[in-house]
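A.,

Following up on our hallway conversation. Structure tokens first:
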């Protein structure tokens, strides 16, 4: 099915003003992914005086090619979706510091202080942490260049794109085996490549995968490089026992060797779980009063665009309620 083409109104984007270090905002939002952008839209519609500090707009959404599970679109180009989110945010009069990373977050009295890599310090009465996660990369040649062109990190999102094809899954734990299950369901031929000796996934999950004829298992093997011009065509793996290299023809590589939350700037301030994710309650409140969390950086399960956007909306509304209850709005 064809969808109408979308063109971005760049005049809006140029108008975003820089946040002011002298001001004390009602709300500061860290991040520019779906969680942060949804929070920004909700907060702006509540007429909160807010600013967004982010390295980029789009977050992980810009890492993929097509999104097939954003409600209302059978399939939408991921860049177009991220552009639409960005345009929506910039349709409001919101201060944005783009290309900026928060490096240190503290609370002084009732005020949050955010130091950035530009050396500026911003202040606010409430703060939303929406800095997302990044996939632990394989760090092999070809990986970065072919992200979204056969290199994938999210089976829930991308498995259907590999229907009837050949895929290598790097990893040996539950995420790798769950990815294998998702791929097998759509009729993909799967090769699991495990760096560590011995598979780490739950026994039942392993059994389910191992009894399938469309699966090959390469234990104690290392992905050496990913090959392809424009799209993945092969993966070179090395047997760590005998150092022998082998080229596997493949249409894709799923990297499932763990996720890292972007928590470096606030991990000493707020309670995290054992994975480094921000612990939030069902209203997105953290262990610190006035501090909220949303999206992939939190312990909320299922890392998806729609979930991050929903949590971002909740976090903004909770920040609003917090300020109203404190008679600060
Ligand atoms: C390849 C790939 C394909 C995917 N496909 C799909 C799909 O088809 N459907 C789906 O639902 N989900 C998909 N996902 C998952 C989805 O993209 C994430 O769940 C979602 O983007 C999470 O949103 P978020 O806002 O919480 O975090 P992110 O998208 O990670 O955004 C975090 C934002 O914070 C910024 N940031 C990080 N650190 C700092 C800092 N210190 N200071 C300031 N800013 C900072 C980042 O630059 C970024 O803008 C995919 C993910 C990947 C990687």
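Then the amino acids I'd put at each of the 329 positions:
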């Amino acid at each position: 099915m064809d969808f109408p083409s979308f063109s971005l109104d760049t005049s809006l984007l140029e108008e975003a003003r820089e946040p002011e270090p002298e001001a004390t905002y009602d709300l500061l939002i860290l991040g520019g992914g779906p969680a942060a952008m949804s929070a920004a839209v909700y907060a702006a519609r509540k007429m909160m005086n807010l600013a967004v500090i982010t390295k980029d707009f789009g977050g992980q959404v810009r890492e993929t090619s097509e999104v097939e599970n954003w409600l209302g679109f059978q399939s939408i180009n991921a860049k177009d979706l991220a552009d639409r989110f960005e345009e929506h945010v910039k349709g409001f009069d919101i201060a944005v510091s783009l290309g900026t990373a928060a490096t240190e977050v503290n609370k002084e009295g009732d005020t949050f202080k955010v130091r950035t890599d530009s050396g500026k310090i911003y202040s606010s009465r409430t703060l939303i942490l929406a800095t997302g996660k990044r996939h632990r990369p394989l760090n092999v040649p070809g990986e970065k260049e072919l992200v979204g062109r056969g290199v994938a990190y999210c089976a829930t999102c991308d498995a259907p794109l590999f229907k009837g094809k050949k895929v290598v899954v790097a990893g040996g734990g539950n995420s790798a085996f769950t990815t294998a299950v998702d791929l097998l369901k759509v009729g993909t031929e799967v090769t699991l490549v495990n760096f560590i000796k011995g598979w780490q996934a739950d026994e039942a999950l392993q059994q389910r995968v191992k009894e399938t004829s469309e699966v090959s298992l390469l234990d104690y093997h290392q992905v050496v490089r990913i090959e392809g011009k424009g799209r993945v065509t092969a993966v070179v793996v090395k047997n760590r026992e005998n150092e022998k290299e082998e080229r596997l023809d493949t249409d894709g590589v799923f990297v499932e060797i763990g996720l890292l939350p972007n928590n470096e700037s606030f991990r000493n301030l707020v309670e995290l779980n054992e994975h480094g994710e921000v612990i939030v309650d069902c209203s997105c409140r953290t262990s610190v009063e006035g501090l909220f969390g949303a999206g992939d950086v939190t312990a909320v399960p299922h890392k998806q665009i729609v979930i991050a956007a929903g949590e971002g909306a909740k976090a903004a509304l909770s920040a609003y309620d917090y300020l109203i209850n404190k008679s600060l709005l």
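The chain has two domains: 10-135+259-325, 144-255. Curious whether your intuition agrees with the design.

B.
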